[in-house]
Amino acid sequence: MFELPVSSNITINAFNLKKLRYQYINDINAKHNELSKNELPTPVTSENDTGGEDLDGDSEHNLTSEDAEVAQERRIRRWKSIMGEAIDDDEDDNNHDDDVDNEFEDNGPTDEEKKYFLRYDKPQESFEKWESNNLKRQRHVNKNFITYYRFKKTRKQIDKKYKVKTMHLNKNVKNNFELMIDGFEPINDNNISRNRNLQNYNKHHLSLLTDLMYSNIFKQKWDIAYKCFTFLLRIPDVDIRRVWNLGSIILQNIDTTKLIDFLQWLSNVYSNKNRSFVQGINYRNDQTNFNGGSRRLTPLYTKTLLWHKLTLSSDSETCESEIDSLIEQIAEMVVIPPYSEDNEIWYIFALCHLVKADNLSEKLYFMSRRNPEVDEMDTYPYDTEIYNNKITICINNCKKYLRKATQDKNFDYPARTIETKLKTIETRTFDFESMPE
Amino acid sequence: MLPINRPIGSQLGLGVKGMSVYVGGDSKEKWIKSVQDKSIIDDSELHVISSEVFIDSDLQKMEKKFIDGEIVKDDYNSDDSGVEFENDEEFEHWKDILVSKMEWQDLDPKISGDFRPFKKVNTSHDRAFDTHEGSLVKSMNFIPNSLISTLSETPIPVQMTDTTGKKSIGNMHSNSTLSVDPNTGELMVIGLLQTVADLRANKDPQQVIAYVSGNSDSVLNIAVLTRSKKEFIKVDKHTKVPGKTWEIKDQKSIESIELNSPIKKILFPQLSAIFRRMSDLIGILTENSLHIIKVSNFNCQTLKFKFQQYKYLSYSSLGDFPFADFAFNPWDMNELAVIDIKGNWAVCSISSSLLKDDTIRVSQDARGTIYDPEELSNWKKIEWSSKFTKLIVMDRSKLFEIDFQKDLQVEIIEAKTWSRLRDYKRIDENISVLLTTKEIIAIRTNKNTNCFDRILSWKHDLDPNDNTLKFSIQKIIKDKVLTLIIYIFTSQSNNVYMHAFSIDTFNLQLTTSCQSNVMTIPNITEGIQTISVPDESYDDDDDYDMNDSYENSSTEYVWINMFLKQYTSNEVTKVIVTNAPLHITKNKNHVHFKTDPNSEGGLKMRYKMKELQEMDNLIQLLTEKYKDYPSNKNENIHDLLQDFGYKLSTLLNEEMVHFNKENRSNLLKNRSLKDLIDLSPSIENLSEFESFLDQLIEHFEESSLKFSNLKSILSFFLHESVPSIDIFYNKLLQCWEIITSNSEVLTRELVKTIVWGAIRFCNKNCYQDKLHNSKDTLTTQYQEIIDLWELNDDEIEEEANKLDNTESTAPMSQPHFTRESQSQIPTIKLSQRNERQERGIANNANRISKSSRNRKSSQARPLCSQAFSSSQTSILPDNITPAFSLMQASAPSLSQSQSSQTSKNKKKKKKKKIGGFK
């Protein structure tokens, strides 16, 4: 039921189908562009093609024509090879198999997938690409209805071609492909052959263990869940970065110090701050900030670590020292990207100072309340001046870093709540200052 | 308000710590968190306490037909609608109902309350001519229904289509293809309807269920749901839970409409909150058209609707492709938007005129397309956005917001890489929820600022390859906090993933529950097609004031009525979920289940409700039968067995005479002891009974009767070796103990019946002869092999040494031996365990004391039997054995020693034989 935490979890059939799908999509797209170019462009469509961001439009335009050429070449080559294969097939079956493999490796699917993704960005921040600035991307409504005639015209030749192409394929893949281009969906993308669980006992074991872990987390049986988690990590293919959140929630309920260690370990080992995200690579799995970061992006586990540390230290009694060490840690971090670019890290940094200021002022406040004559008491060897200075520095830092966090306007925080908080802290110090007088 | 990082918002999931705001130490809660520390609803305690079939539409239709008394003649040609007797039993059942009806019914025609002469004439409708448009023609192999139903026994779920290409179309390639039409949406919906008349009369809206039935899913059924009677279920002394559920009061009130095409989606329009009313329309999308039904009147007494069907909108009116989805405008009851499978969308309006029929007109301006040649899937969805003129249109990889008045569209989501879109639900003008393969995303829309923001996402970790993921939402408003419970379900399993968001209606702050939960719905074998939760916030009946029931309770319990439709069948199941510590075990009419907490996904109830009920009845019957079972005193057991033994042996002897007389070929069949005599019910001591059997078998085996090996038969029941009947009994007892209180008697009777039925006997001689005959037909080479077969290893060697000696001895000697043994007098040995143990070291003196102790019990016939036994030897013919005799102390009989001797002999012989076969 749940996603398996392995990096390459795809059956051969599903993989083949994926290859074929990309190929088909590219062909269809090329054909569609070709046809829509030939049609008399209505004002609306032309506007759509070139409107908006010019650069994008141009590059797409160039790309498609190139695509068409490449596709044409490839088509010819493939046709030839198919014809050749057909002859081979009659002569020698083994030969034919090799040929098919070679063909796929040489100029087939990997290229097709790359080609497909040339048109699209691979997002890192989230699983989909979300547009923040809506106004910029506004277009006119595409009124170019796709009629049955137009649709068939695009599909006709290509479908014919793929009929030939899929002739020698695995029956499963072929059937699924045919249904897929008819618009239907397999019940499970990766479950093209029915007994997928029985294919591989390792995988079966893995899926059982994963389900068991989830169900125990949901039932809050942390000990069993912990056991499952530890078992899971020992399975060779399992990528800890895909299930780190489960480890986090389990440890959170078992032992918080362990949790901090675990997250710290993750952030150290998989910090990925030097890794750059390459658009051209066809990653096997999602490469979002959930599974790790890059030079541009802070991984989610680092943020979780910082939040945990912050909330824990704000609750604990030895708050001051913990906060100080946290501030030190973040101060080191924000020197370099990706942390220096991350608004949330700056926000956390600001909050650290806020918590510290609050803490200090509170202490000062209670001190003054309980002992109006602080100076006379030897048991309170605190210098109020130092305290006041500390608090002021914290408040200033807090404001500074909040400004930093919001400078690119993509980050919003409840300014009013925090401002009132800052003001109360200031009043406390003010009260204290005014009181002895 | 919580901090937000545009455009991504908070990305949360299990164990991910979201952004928070520090509010300081004055209050207990130092932080305002986006992930709540506690679950919004106490997920982990939630369990299903009841799961029962609510509507079995096929069954119900038949019932209705008969009960209504309108046994229409088209029953015979209405095979398509599923009225078909699967077997004779069912036919008999219905016949019985019919006959009983006929007996009691008045001969005069009964005029029902809604009798309307000449207003509406129902012409008989031949279901055979129903269109089955939309099913793929190329993939239509006819497979008989009966065959498919038997296929469901296979361990792998086979989803095949019936003749109509119902839900799956993977039959052309019966091998493995499991594909679905992604556009099949809600086929069972519960919603609120309010007619104009009701609105004027200031009546509350009606909770209505609409669901499909029929083989081709082409029949729409509408019925009113009413509250069941107030019923409080006690949790403990102080707390009560209002066990409120819904029911259909009158089966007759269900209205059925034939739409002549497979239904893809049913939708109740959701009007904007400013209207303060519910709509009176129902929209139905079929394979080839869009139907709108307007409810014009509702009769409170009969619970019947009067409705009016608009002229449908055919698929050809848009882009020659079937419709994929449609949505009603929440601000204008007469406006809706449709989209077809390729992404052509248009706004339509319902135009009503006095002269003509009401029709649906497609607007010529407000239309467009999101066709993407790269998107192969047919899945499309359309929904109204935050504004009167704004639509959300999406396919699997893109989401657009379209302003059709300003003629502008914005592509907001592009999901081409790591994830795909799965489902989308609009909650109100401000909030909507999107499900992708990876996350549940809460989206905030605002008509003033034009924003469409992703504020919060929850990573659900469900299998991203599952294409059938969908979700439904339950809204609970309490203390100005709107809680959204999201149920994600799939057609692949009976597990439901639950997660909750809560929205503070005051400052629109959205937080999420820190935990999710997975519930296994019992009684569901296939996956789930739709879940629908009635909106219970609306009906504030005085009877059902939520607060009043909680007054005395310190804890609040969740009580969720959930209706769901299975993937392949048309049954609607009602499920009650609660976190109250309730374990409802049994109800008068229904069997309830408590889910086994450790059976996550593993347990699949294979039995349907009816079967389980039958089981229940059976158990009750059995229990009642053996309730007052006379328990005999143990002292009688020996007498009883003795008596019984005599009877039986006489019968067996007669039987043997028959064996000898009759034609041998007839006798090859084996016979059961049960045929001869029924087992006396008063035998209670099973170990005695077993020893009796042992002796019986031992004795008669000497006289050429062959008995079945009881132990190996019993071991088939348990799949482990069963050394004695006692153990078999104990093992069975373990099972029955759970079910019934009277288990011991029941089990004993069961064991006895099984044993008595299992012991069969035959005449060994017949087989021997047969064996000889067939052996003679073999060539000498094979005969030699067979001869060797029966010898031990060393004997084989010997045999090899004296190869010239070809005479095979073993089989020949057999008849001689058996004949000899037949003259023996059988004895019966009473065996208590200690007695048997001592027998090993027994000498005669010992035996005497034992037997004398037993004498009291066996005094009934000692003399007679002795006389009988001693005299019988001479009187009876050679091959007939006299009956049992009790071994007497005074006569440590000859026969005893003889028989033991022969048995020793035989053992040797037997061992030799068996050794060969091993």
Helical percentage of chain A: 55-70%
What global shape of chain A is seen? elongated
Distance N terminus to C terminus of chain A? Answer: 69 Å
Total discrete domains of chain A: 3
**What portion of the residues of chain A fall into strands of 2 or more residues?**
under 5%
Oligomer: heterodimer
The pLDDT mean of chain B sits at 70
Rounded mean pLDDT of chain A is: 76
> Can you tell me the residue ranges of chain A where pLDDT is under 50 for at least 5 consecutive residues?
41-63, 85-109, 193-197
Taking Cα atoms only, what radius of gyration of chain A do you get, to the nearest Å? 30 Å
Total strands of chain A: the figure is 4
- State the separation between the terminal residues of chain B, measured CA to CA: 82 Å
Q: How large a portion of the residues of chain B is in β-strands, by DSSP E?
A: 25-35%
Order of helices and strands of chain A: HHHHHEEHHEHHHHHHHHHEH
Organism (chain B): Tetrapisispora phaffii (strain ATCC 24235 / CBS 4417 / NBRC 1672 / NRRL Y-8282 / UCD 70-5) (Yeast)
Region (Disordered) (chain B): 804-918
Pfam families (chain B): Rrn6_beta-prop (PF10214), Rrn6_HB (PF20640), Rrn6_K-rich (PF20639)
Domain RRN6 helical bundle (chain B): 630-758
